[in-house]
Write a structure and sequence with these properties.
The complex is a heterodimer of chains A (411) and B (264). Chain A has 18 helices and eight strands. Chain A is an alpha/beta fold. In chain A, the strands form two sheets. A four-stranded parallel beta sheet of chain A has the order 2-1-3-4, sandwiched between helices. A four-stranded parallel beta sheet of chain A has the order 6-5-7-8, with helices on both faces. The longest helix of chain A is centred in the first third of the chain and has 22 residues. In chain B, strand 6 and strand 7 form a beta hairpin. Classes of the chains: A alpha/beta (411), B alpha/beta (264).
């Protein structure tokens, strides 16, 4: 069953934990999806029921914000990690009673959902794990910790430095201790190794899935790809999720090989980079795919970044986890060489015609880094446009004009 | 030869052009009004009747913010692409286009006959036609009389970029009995400053001209202010108002009548 936000609002007297869709915004056109994506599109919406069920069974839930949170440590404790970055403007007004207006909408929205208790995942979370990533987030976490149980990891802002690696390793161990204490469990060596294995398996499957779009034309649209990448966060039985990913990949591949053409071969191949994109900011994808383009790759937090690197299964587990997570490219890092390296590889591998960067309003680190990305792509001879947006719908027409003009100018 | 009609449905004016494939045959301009589809279809009728052309012998191409509403068009393109191609048609050899519209302003760079880069100001009214029209209202000058009215030599700076605050600033200057023609020139320079913010982000060369299009392209005083501020020659053309509409015809010629398909 598919709801949208308006539909949800009509529902009478929703109880905590029954409001799920309100957090993530709109899942558009889900009823026209090919069957293989429905399971993922529904996952976010059904997620609250799943979380409630898990809670009733006595499971612990840990809310996470960034791709830097080592999910393996949470999984190894028998707990459930769930992403609680918000992608809807619905609670921003509430958040602005405390937070400044000129702040990233993701931070305002997420904090607003905690304040209003409208997000079931935030509501059910026994612990929220945050990292010292950008200035806005880390200061918001201070306020969040007044109303929720928050654990902050000190994330170094550079990646090659030995002391930075050492600090992050210690932070991973501290997280383990905190989780053991909070959840009253002991994480065994086998437990953490199994968690690493199953997370790596998931990463491999996600990679295999998004790499399907390396084909020309891609077998699926960018909107469809995003549904799976985003929805997969809200499937909590790891083994079942991996089986479903496998089935989805096989089905897409089979249809493609049988000659089903989902996307025009003339569609311009676009890679999206920049701030986290989901929910309301899918308006970027809609504008691109309504103007003769197709999104083939997402170099974002929901997309390639969390799946690209594996945790070394032959190393000491916590060291391996720390090493892997610290190397994720993000504009909070200085220098952000891993993002540049990943991007220049992806534009070739996915035979990209143009790169669209989305920055969220008041995201200083990404907005400043735009100049570096522009230089990098100039060197690669790939057309580039950067657009700034927020969680409102007010710029839909302007985004459409900009992105359509960008696609028209591609050779 | 099939005729083309280009419709540039802007936020303020709807500009239409009848094009025979090589030159402009006729032009028409009306207020866009509240319904962009109506003003576009009325304009189309005017052009067809005036030139005794039947509906089935034309290809209609739409651009401008109202393009999505013009459902009878055969194809549609963004105003960025259309202004570039229209600009190249009117004044070959330009390196780009400055278009000041009613609700946005844009700077487009052209290289090797294509759009190479573009910047748009569509987040606020600063540096748009709306800004100038507010200033003219406050100063009690008609938009058509700017050139006669503005002081050629002296300007009183208008520092507020925000249209609302600029209005307060102008009212303040008037209360101090400052010279109106000099305030007018200050307003024009303020628009030029806003254009400079965009042109300075694009690697333009000094010697090759930029074409100014849009409704304000008939004000030589504004063109002079922009040219002096950005340090690049700015030229205009008698049909500069119709650059977008002509460009729509040229894009349609390439796409709808050619091999590919037009995209809305």
């Amino acid at each position: 069953m598919v709801y949208d936000v308006d539909e949800q609002r009509k529902q009478p007297a929703l109880h905590h934990g029954e409001v799920l869709v309100l957090r993530g915004g709109i899942l558009m056109g889900a009823n026209t999806l090919p069957s293989q994506f429905e399971g993922f599109a529904d996952a976010r919406k059904q997620g609250f029921l799943a979380v409630k069920k898990l809670k009733d069974e006595g499971k612990k839930v840990a809310g996470t914000f960034c791709t830097y949170t080592p999910a393996e440590v949470i999984l190894a404790a028998g707990a459930v990690p769930v992403g609680i970055c918000a992608f809807s403007d619905e609670t921003i007004a509430e958040a602005e009673k405390v937070l400044p207006r000129n702040l990233c909408p993701l931070i305002k929205s997420s904090y607003g959902f905690a304040l209003t208790e409208k997000c079931p995942y935030m509501y059910f979370a026994d612990l929220i794990v945050g990292e010292t990533t950008c200035d806005g987030k880390k200061k918001m976490y201070e306020l969040l910790s007044e109303i929720k149980n928050v654990h902050i990891m000190q994330l170094p802002q550079t990646q090659d430095d030995e002391t930075a690696k050492e600090l992050w390793y210690k932070e991973v161990l501290l997280l383990k201790e905190r989780i053991e204490k909070e959840f009253g469990v002991t994480i065994t060596d086998d437990g953490i190794k199994n968690a690493i294995k199953i997370k790596n398996e998931e990463r491999g499957l996600l990679k295999e899935f998004y790499e399907l779009s390396k084909s020309c034309p891609p077998p699926i649209t960018g909107a469809e790809q995003l549904k799976v990448l985003y929805g997969s966060q809200f499937k909590f039985d790891m083994e079942a999720k991996n089986r479903e990913l496998r089935a989805t990949i096989d089905k897409v591949r089979e249809e493609y090989e049988n000659g089903v053409e989902n996307v025009s071969k003339n569609a311009k191949r676009i890679l999206i980079t920049g701030c986290p994109l989901a929910g309301v900011t899918e308006k970027i994808v809609t504008a691109i795919e309504g103007s003769g383009g197709v999104v083939v790759a997402y170099e974002n937090c929901i997309g390639i970044k969390p799946a690209e690197r594996l945790v070394d299964e032959n190393e000491e587990p916590y060291k391996a986890i720390a090493d892997r997570y610290l190397q994720i490219g993000c504009s909070v890092m200085t220098p952000d060489n891993n993002r540049y390296a990943l991007l220049s590889g992806l534009v070739k591998e996915f035979k990209v015609d143009g790169v669209v960067e989305m920055t969220l309003q008041a995201c200083h680190t990404y907005a400043v880094e735009t100049a570096q990305i522009r230089k990098l792509l100039q060197k690669e001879d790939i057309p580039f446009i950067s657009v700034e947006t927020d969680y409102s719908a007010s710029d839909t027409a302007q985004l459409k004009t900009r992105l359509a003009a960008f696609i028209e100018m591609l050779p | 030869m099939i005729h083309l009609v280009g419709i540039d449905s802007g936020s303020t004016m709807c500009k239409t052009v009848l094009f025979d494939g090589t030159s402009i045959v006729d032009t028409h301009v009306v207020k866009t009004g509240w319904n962009p589809r109506d003003s576009a279809s009325e304009s189309l009728e005017v052009l067809l009747q005036r030139n005794s052309l039947p509906h089935n012998e034309i290809c209609v191409s739409a651009t401008g913010y109202g393009r999505e509403a013009i459902d009878f068009a055969d194809c549609a393109f963004t105003e960025i692409t259309c202004h570039a191609f229209g600009g190249m048609f009117l004044t070959p050899g330009i390196q780009g286009v400055i278009d000041i519209g009613g609700q946005d302003s844009k700077v487009i760079q052209i290289q090797n006959g294509r759009v190479a880069n573009f910047l748009m100001n569509d987040k606020c009214a600063a540096g748009t036609g709306r800004f100038l029209s507010m200033a003219c209202d406050t100063l009690g000058v008609s938009l058509d009389d700017i050139d006669k009215f503005a002081d050629l030599y002296d300007a009183i700076p208008v520092n507020s970029m925000c249209t609302v605050f600029a209005e307060s600033e102008i009212i303040g200057l008037l209360a101090m009995q400052k010279d109106r023609p000099q305030i007018m020139t200050g307003v024009l320079r303020s628009i030029a400053q806003k254009i400079l913010q965009m042109t300075s982000k694009i690697n333009f060369i000094q010697k090759t001209p930029l074409l100014m299009t849009g409704g304000l392209s008939k004000s030589m005083a504004l063109i002079r202010a922009i040219s002096q501020t950005i340090g690049i020659d700015v030229i205009t053309h008698e049909h500069a108002l119709f650059a977008g509409a002509v460009g729509a015809c040229i894009c349609a010629q390439k796409k709808c009548l050619g091999t590919g398909d037009g995209t809305k």
